[in-house]
Amino acid sequence: MRKLINRLLGGRQAMQGKAIVPQVAAAPRVPEANHFDIGLKDAGYDGWYRVDSGELYEGFAIRAEDVVVDVGCGDGGCALFCANRGAHVIVADIDAAKVAATTQRLSGTPAREVQGVVSDANPLLLPDGVASKIISMEVLEHVDDPAQFLRELVRIGKPGAQYLLTVPDPVAEQLQVGLAPEVYFQKPNHVRIIQRDQFEQLVADAGLVIERHSYYGFYWSLWWLFFWVCKVDLADPQHPLLNSWTRTWEALLGSPQGSLVRQRMNALMPKCQAIVARKP
């Protein structure tokens, strides 16, 4: 730090009879970083995308005999994992373009069958008891009526069906207030911040039995805070601050006690919370 301060100030030297003008050196260029690759690696430590065990998330295994419904599929990352396991995959989203793109993305996979449904989930255009695995990631914070939305998810599940539900964690969300653009907390984006106990209550009230409630993604909590102030394009988020943070986290993941630090930070300020639940 001392060397950095000296460099930024150009090594001030008093010169008799002359004004002292600090010479500010150019900030060192931080190499570009692949933020999303590091984020994916971090997710693996948190229990995501376990190819060897077939678990999309720890405790949520996908098998070829499963019928999986991904509600709010977005770009289809989770659906792709399930398709590669040979499952029958149904992707649903309010955005017709995303449904079309995701079904096309899955068309060359080992999936038994791929279907696309354009729906706002009020109601879901699917029959009762169709699915053995239901996924809904980062959707509840968007919908007008979370209880109604969950009822639809429960309706389409078979008895014994398993659910993977995620929402942003309230700690990270609250920190973004005043930093994120106002539209971040406006419809059709995040219209509510879901507290941890509230999330559990919503799931239990829908008639599901909670098997696991976990927290992950501290890396992304800070990344997004930095992203808002860097004002760069999300398609190519290269900035010295973001790159430094990603390189720091990458170094931590490779350090002897990195796992312990990561677990502690996930408990303190996770980006997301996840519930794995089952329909009785």
From TrEMBL:
**What Gene Ontology molecular function terms does this protein carry?**
methyltransferase activity
Q: InterPro entries in the record, alphabetically?
A: SAM-dependent_MTases_sf (IPR029063)
* Entry annotated with the keyword Methyltransferase: yes
Q: Which keywords are on file for this protein?
A: Methyltransferase, Transferase
One Pfam family linked to the record = Methyltransf_23
Q: Which residues form the signal peptide?
A: none
One Gene Ontology term of the biological-process aspect is:
methylation
- State the protein's name: Class I SAM-dependent methyltransferase
The species this protein belongs to is Collimonas rhizosphaerae
